[in-house]
Design goal:
This protein is α+β, with helices and mostly antiparallel strands and 341 residues long. It is built from 11 helices and 9 strands. It binds phenylalanine (PHE).
């Protein structure tokens, strides 16, 4: 009888000390104390050793203990259940910080492109878009690049193999042609969009990228208008203090042609890796629309003149955010994109 009493007491203590925090531990508890080979069954087996006149008392004791053990099991089960999420398997620790609510963010290319567009919109330019698959005329010929012109080599082109008269546009100048062909003058428009070139993909070049080009055609548009417009643009884009310089260049569709550099806005022209220690970064090509291009689209070059420019959105985005690999812009790696919230 005494050994039964001692057994009950020590198992009672053991039960009190047993903590349960998941379904597996609850089941272990059940097997250990209430199962067919469990400790309660073991105690019951000791009844046979209890003297006859004490059996009644021992039975009551065991019964009371059984109720205690089963009660404890139900308690643990209930307590553990309130700790279980609706799908029933993972325990929730209410003291943990909440899971972050993942929201999307604007892609840095979109941010930069929208900034470019809004600067021109505020000075009266409207936005025009066109197809990414273009015919030879809009992408090359109308732009004063006849079929065998060597300047076509400047733009490694993806041809559509079924019909080489069709290409993936190499610049959004093709949309400028489409606008000019409509013949509604004056024209003050910008042309954002994706363009394609057959380049070897590397940290600095991709086979597709994004441009914002612009076109202004009216009577008496001069190179001074071009410079002033672009000067206004870079001040809005990179800051009031930015300086510009024009270098003579060549494009078949503009004459004269120039490339425009801005003073390095990363290092304030002190010299850094972005400007390769020159203090200047090249950001766009521009020029006065070639009279042949006006003629090709039915605009009288004696009456009208105009300027055009084109810049890469990807390059500018990389400069502004210090991104060192162009491929990051199209890989959609969430760890990269998250940084632009
Ligand atoms: N179309 C040229 C390019 O893709 C850019 C450009 C546009 C240059 C207009 C001059 C005038 O490189």
């Amino acid at each position: 009888m005494q050994s039964l009493k001692d057994g009950i007491n020590s198992i009672r203590e053991e039960i009190k000390e047993t903590a349960v925090s998941n379904a597996e531990q609850l089941e272990q508890f059940r097997i250990k104390f209430l199962g067919t080979k469990g400790k309660l069954k073991g105690l019951m087996g000791e009844m046979k050793n209890v003297a006859k006149d004490q059996k009644r008392e021992a039975g009551q004791m065991l019964n009371e203990f059984k109720q205690f053990a089963e009660g404890r099991f139900e308690e643990l089960k209930a307590q553990f259940k309130t700790n279980v999420t609706s799908d029933g398997d993972a325990a929730t620790d209410a003291s943990l910080p909440p899971l972050p609510n993942e929201t999307g963010a604007r892609h840095p290319l979109s941010t930069v492109q929208e900034k470019m567009i809004s600067i021109f919109e505020r000075i009266g330019f409207t936005v025009a878009e066109g197809p990414e698959i273009e015919d030879d005329w809009h992408n090359f010929s109308a732009l004063n690049l006849p079929e065998h012109h060597p300047a076509r080599d400047m733009q490694d082109t993806f041809f559509i193999s079924k019909d080489p008269d069709w290409v993936l546009r190499t610049h959004t100048s093709s949309v400028q042609i489409r606008t000019m062909e409509k013949g509604v003058l004056p024209i003050r428009q910008i042309f954002p969009g994706r363009v394609y070139r057959n380049e070897t993909i590397s940290a600095r070049a991709h086979c597709f990228f994004h441009q914002v080009e612009g076109l202004y055609i009216d009577e008496k548009v001069s190179f001074a208008d071009l410079k002033q417009t672009l000067y206004h643009f870079v001040q809005q884009m990179f800051g009031e203090d930015v300086q510009v310089r024009f270098r003579p260049s060549y494009f078949p569709f503009t004459e004269p042609s120039a490339e425009m550099d801005v003073s390095c806005f990363i290092c304030d022209s002190k010299g850094c890796s972005v400007c390769k220690h020159t203090g200047w970064v090249e950001i766009l090509g521009c020029g006065m629309v070639h009279p042949n291009v006006l003629k090709n689209t039915g605009i009288d070059p004696e009456k009208y003149s105009g300027f055009a420019f084109g810049m890469g959105v990807d390059r500018t985005t990389m400069l502004m955010y210090g991104i060192n690999d162009i491929r990051l812009l199209s890989e959609n790696d969430i760890r990269f994109l998250k940084q632009f919230k």
